[in-house]
């Protein structure tokens, strides 16, 4: 079983090895406690996440990939009960229409954004995502204590 309790997990689904390495470098610069896992395409990502052995706190999903593109992968991941609360962010190098963004949000993505090309921008983006997840987790814990 790969479920990691002590360190949160960032799961990247992207066919571009350079993007994976770029993200790893950004997480290292943040001195992030995130464990980093990666799938090379949507089909592999769905296969790895289907069993429930891996329950990431954050999924970054590339929009355009071979075998299974981001939109189909998103729909399949949102059908997995153990991932319903996991934020999934779609990211892409291509410009997205408002309709595509709206469709991705409706299908369960938290947000759609352009892949940063500069390290400083990627570090800032990842810091914001991690802060958002940490804030969400803290708020949920606080609401449980109030009840």
Question: Average pLDDT, to the nearest integer?
Answer: 84
Unreliable stretches (pLDDT < 50, length at least 5) are 1-5, 141-146
Supply the number of helical segments: 5
Q: What is the terminal-to-terminal distance? A: 32 Å
Overall geometric form: globular
Rg, alpha carbons: 15 Å
> How much strand content do the residues show?
15-25%
Give the ordered list of helices and strands.
EHEHEHEHEH
**What profile does the largest beta sheet have?**
5 strands, parallel
What does this 3D model show about the protein?
This protein is 46% helix and 16% strand. The protein has 147 residues and is α/β, with parallel strands linked by helices. Strands 2-1-3-4-5 form a 5-stranded parallel β-sheet, with helices on both faces. Strand 4 (88-92), helix 4 and strand 5 form a beta-alpha-beta unit. The model is unreliable at 1-5 and 141-146 (pLDDT under 50).
Outline the secondary-structure elements:
Layout lengths: L8 E5 L3 H13 L5 E5 L2 H9 L7 E5 L7 H9 L9 E5 L5 H9 L4 E4 L4 H28 L1
Parallel strand pairs: 1-2, 1-3, 3-4, 4-5
